[in-house]
Write a structure and sequence with these properties.
By secondary structure, this protein is an all-alpha fold. It has helices at residues 7-34, 45-51, 56-64, 69-81, 87-108, 113-140. The longest helix has 28 residues, at 7-34.
Length: 141
C-alpha cells in the first residue's frame, strides 16, 4: 500500500477547494432565487459582479484557492516524487492547510480583511518554509 503522510494535507486542501466550490454555488443559486436573477443576465463578468454581491466573497475565495495553493500542490508532489519527507515537512504542510482553512472561513463568512490577510500572509510564509526545506534537501544531497 502506497501511503505518504504528505498526501493527507494535500487531500485536505483539495477537500477545502471542493467545499468552497459547493458553498459558492449554494450561496449564488440562493442569491439568484432571492433576487429573481435570470442566469442569462450573468453572461459578462462586470454585470455578474454588480448583480451577485452576496456571493462575491466565496467566488473570490475559490479563485484564490487556485493561486498560491498551486505552489503547495507542486512542492508536495515534488517531495513525493523525490521521496523526501520528514516530520517537519509534514507539520509545515498541515500548518499551511490549516491556515488556508482559516483564510477561507474568514473570507466566506464575516470577511474582515485584516483577519483574512493575516491568515493569507502566514500561509505564504509557511509555503516559503516548505519550499526552503525541500530546496535544502535537494541541494545538500
Amino acid at each position: 500500500m502506497f501511503y505518504k503522510p504528505l498526501l493527507v494535507p494535500l487531500l485536505a486542501l483539495v477537500l477545502l477547494t471542493f467545499l468552497v466550490w459547493v458553498y459558492m454555488y449554494v450561496t449564488r443559486i440562493g442569491e439568484m432565487k432571492r433576487k429573481s436573477i435570470n442566469p442569462q443576465n450573468l453572461d459578462s463578468r462586470a454585470h455578474g459582479q454588480t448583480l451577485l454581491t452576496d456571493s462575491c466573497a466565496p467566488a473570490d475565495n475559490l479563485k484564490n484557492l487556485f493561486e498560491m495553493p498551486v505552489l503547495f500542490y507542486v512542492v508536495v508532489l515534488l517531495a513525493l516524487i523525490l521521496m523526501i519527507q520528514d516530520q517537519l515537512l509534514v507539520q509545515l504542510a498541515w500548518s499551511y492547510v490549516a491556515l488556508r482553512y482559516v483564510h477561507s472561513l474568514v473570507h466566506c463568512t464575516y470577511n474582515r480583511v485584516m483577519h483574512r490577510f493575516a491568515a493569507y500572509a502566514a500561509s505564504c510564509l509557511v509555503l516559503i518554509f516548505i519550499w526552503a526545506r525541500l530546496a535544502a534537501y535537494i541541494l545538500m544531497n
